[in-house]
Sequence to fold (640 residues):
Amino acid sequence: MSNPNMIGLIHNEVMKIASKKRLAVVIVILVILVSMFTYAQYREIQEKIEKQGTLDWRVELQQEIVDRQNRLASSGIQDEFRQFLEFDLKQKQYYLDNDINPNYPGAPTFIRIFFSQGITLVLPLFIIIIMADIVSGEYNDGTIKTLLSRPVKRWKILMAKWLTVLLYTSMLMAATVIVCYGVSGIVLGYDGWTAPILTGFQASASGEFSTEYIHTLPMWEYLLMSVGLAWVVTAVVGTISIMISVLVKNTATGIGAMMAVLIAGTLLSSIGSSWTSSKYLVNLNFDLINYLEGQAPPIEGMSLPFSLTILGIWAAACLAVAFWNFTQKDMY
Amino acid sequence: MSLKPTVQLKNVTKIIGKKTIIDNISFEIYPGEVFGFLGPNGAGKTTTIRMLVGLIKPTSGKINICGFDVRKQFVQAMQRLGSIVENPELYKYLSGRENLQIFARMLPDVDEERIQEVIDLVDLTARIDDQVRTYSLGMRQRLGIAQALLGRPDVLILDEPTNGLDPMGIKALRTFIRKLVDDTGLSVLVSSHILSEIELLADRVAIMSHGKIVKVGSVSDLVGALSSGVDWRVSDSFRALAIFKESPYVQAAELYDDHTIHTLMDEGRTSILNEALMKAGIEVWTIERKVQTLEDLFISLTGGDHIV
Fold:
C-alpha cells in the first residue's frame, strides 16, 4: 500500500505550514534583526577607528584585558560576576599570547556571534512562531475531527507533525546562516571561513580554569558545531512546544507557556547558581554554545554531555506525554 | 433484511465522569439505505457519531463498520467510512483542491482523477482552486461531502448536514443524497433535529432522547401507525365516550371537551361507530381523520422534548 505513508503525511503538514507563510515571516524578522546588528557593528568599527586611529585587534584586546583587570580590582562585585570576568580575562590573554584574533572580522564571525547569542532565545522563539499551532491549530479550526477520522492511526499523524518540526528546525538553521552571511557580509566582508578559533577551554563554576585541552579549529568547523548545537536546542524547544500544543489545545495559551519556559530559563541561569538542582531544568540547559566558548557554566557540575543528556531526557518525556495524550484522548 | 449491515452498534454506552451520555444503544444500518438519526440537541446524536468515527472511545459496547471493529481495526474501518462531524471542518487557508489532496494522501489509492471525479460530483469545479475561507456555507458543505466521498466509502455519515443551508440548498442536498444512494448503494447516516427533513430523506429512523434510542423503524411504518387518529365532534361527548370505550374497534378514546373526543381507531370501522352513536341518539356533527406527524410520535415518545 503506497498510501497513506509517512512522506505523504509530512507533505500534508508542510503544505499547511507553507500556506500560513510562517517561515517567510521569520525570514523577514531575521533580515530586519541582522540588518540592525550589522549596522550597529559597522558603527562600532567606525567609532574605534576614530578613537584609536587604527583597527588593530591586538590593541583592542589589550584594552579589554586592562578593562577586565580594573573591574576585578574594584571592590563590591559579586562572586559570580568576578568569576565570569576572571575566565574572560584568562581567555583573552590566551588569545593574545597565541596571536589569534578572537573576532576575525567578517560574515562568518557574525554568524558565530549570532548563534552564540541567539541559541537561548531568538532561535527557539522562531521555531515557536513557525510550529506552535501545529496541533492546537487543528483544535482551534476543528479540523482535528476530520483529520483523526481518516484511516490513519493517531500516532502516525503526530509522528508526521513531529518530524515536520525537525524538518523546519533544519530549514530555520539554514535560513539563519544564509541571512546572517548575506546581510552582514555587505559591511563586514564575506571571508573568514578558515580563520582559526580556539575551543576547549575548560572552565568550571568552582573556579578552575584549564588550558589543557585547548586547540584551534577553522571557523567553518566551529560554525558547523555551533549550528549543530543550536539545532539540538531548537529541536528540543520544538518538541516541548508540540507537547504543550497537544495539551492546551489553544494556540495563544501554548505560545504564552513556551515563552514563559524560555524567559524563565534566561532569568534563572543568571541568578540561580545557588539553587544547584535547577540544573536539571530543561531551560537552564539551552546555552550549549557556552561550552564551546569555554565560559563558566551557570551551575557547578554542568557540562556539554550533561546538558545534552538533560535535553534528551526532557525531549523524550515530552514526546511520551504528547503521544500518550494524543492517542488516548477523546476528541470533542 | 438478508444483507449484512454496514454499521452495527451493540450495547454501546458512554459515561463521562458520572454522567451517562449514551445509554446502551444498539442499531444497524444496511447497504442502500438512508438512516435518519433524530433527536433534540443534546440527546447524544453527535456523541454517537463521534464514537462511530473513532474520535471518542465507548465506555462499553461494540461498534463495527463493515465488519471491522472501530477500536481494534481502526484503519480498515475508517477506509470504508466517510464523514462530516458537525460542521464540515476543512483548512480554510487552503484551496478546496488542496484540502482534497491532503485528505487523499491519507487514503489508499486516491489519485488526481478521483479527486476531480468527486469535485464534479458535488459540482464545485468552478471554485475549487479558491481558498475555502471564501466559500459559502453551502459550498463548504459540498466540499465536506466531496472529502467524505474521496475514498469510495461504503458508509457516509453526515451530522446535521442541513445546518445553515437555505431551503433550496436543503432540497438540493436531499436530491443529491438520494441519487448517491441509488447509484452507489452505500449506506448513509444522517442526523438531524429537524423532523420534516428526516421524514423526507430517510428510509428508517432512530429516535434518540436523553442518550437512549426510544424507537427504531421505517418512516412509513412510524407514520402509518400514527395516521389512524380520528376526532369526533358530537352533541354529547360524555355519553359518546362510553360507547367508544365499549367498542372493540377503538384502541383509545380521550375526552377533549363537551363536544370533542380524540380516538385512536381502525379507520375502516368509522361508519359502524357512527351508526352506534346515532342509535344512541347522539348527534354526530363532524368526523375528522387526524393525520398525526412524526412530531406527535416524537413528543409522545420523549415526553415533550423540544424539537423544531
